[in-house]
């Protein structure tokens, strides 16, 4: 298919691609506590991720974000699922969710926040980003034998997030 046949049209719904990665070490998961001055997710815990840059595939982007934001590598990094976020009428977010096992490296200091190993049994004791309590069980269930999950995040008229998983 040629470049012109790709159907790119500014009138179509478009997405901004991002990655979100969760790194596991035994019974712990690595989370980033958002810096207090962050506009979004200040003092809330989330996985590690960011935007996919032009010329990157999703796996390369996930690995780069781990290096840039955490200074680490993850073995067996695999796609667990995709999340489409209906952020507006014209533009959404395509979130590619990964899981991997800790494979070494020291933590970096970052303006993004503080990295912390959190015991999975105690995760509900932490202030998490709004969707993490629902998303994380799907990530943890992902063992490479099941197909990746698919989720859609939409917002009701009061701005509350509605999460739907495909079947």
Secondary structure layout:
Blueprint: E1 14-25, E2 28-34, E3 45-46, E4 48-51, H1 58-70, E5 74-85, E6 91-102, E7 113-119, H2 132-141, E8 149-155, E9 161-165
Parallel strand pairs: 1-6, 5-8
Antiparallel strand pairs: 1-2, 1-4, 2-3, 2-7, 5-6, 8-9
Q: What is the third-level CATH name, the topology of the domain at 19-79 and 96-145? A: Nucleoside Triphosphate Pyrophosphohydrolase
Q: Judging from the principal axes of the Cα atoms, what is the shape?
A: globular
**Main sheet?**
9 strands, mixed
Strands, count: 9
Low-confidence runs of at least 5 consecutive residues: none
* Name given to the CATH homologous superfamily of the domain at 19-79 and 96-145: Nucleoside Triphosphate Pyrophosphohydrolase
Count up the helices.
Answer: 2
Strand content: 35-45%
Rg on CA atoms, Å: 16 Å
Helix content: 10-25%
Mean pLDDT: 91
- What's the SSE pattern? EEEEHEEEHEE
Helix vs. strand class: mainly beta
CATH architecture of the domain at 19-79 and 96-145: Alpha-Beta Complex
Roughly how many Å apart are the termini?
A: 31 Å
CATH class designation of the domain at 19-79 and 96-145: Alpha Beta
């Amino acid at each position: 298919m040629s470049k012109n046949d790709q159907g790119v049209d500014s009138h179509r719904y478009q997405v901004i691609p991002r990655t979100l990665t969760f790194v596991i070490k035994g019974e712990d998961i690595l989370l980033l506590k958002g810096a207090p001055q962050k506009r979004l997710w200040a003092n809330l815990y989330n996985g590690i991720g960011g935007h996919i840059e032009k010329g990157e595939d999703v796996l390369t982007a996930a690995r780069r974000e781990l290096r840039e934001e955490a200074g680490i590598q993850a073995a067996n990094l695999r796609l667990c699922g995709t999340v489409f976020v209906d952020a507006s009428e014209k533009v959404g977010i395509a979130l590619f969710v990964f899981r991997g096992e800790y494979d070494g490296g020291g933590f970096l200091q970052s303006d993004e926040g503080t990295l912390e190993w959190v015991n999975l049994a105690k995760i509900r004791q932490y202030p998490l980003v709004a969707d993490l309590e629902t998303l994380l069980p799907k990530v943890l269930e992902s063992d490479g034998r099941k197909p990746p999950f698919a989720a859609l995040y939409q917002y009701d008229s009061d701005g509350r997030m509605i999460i739907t998983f495909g079947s």
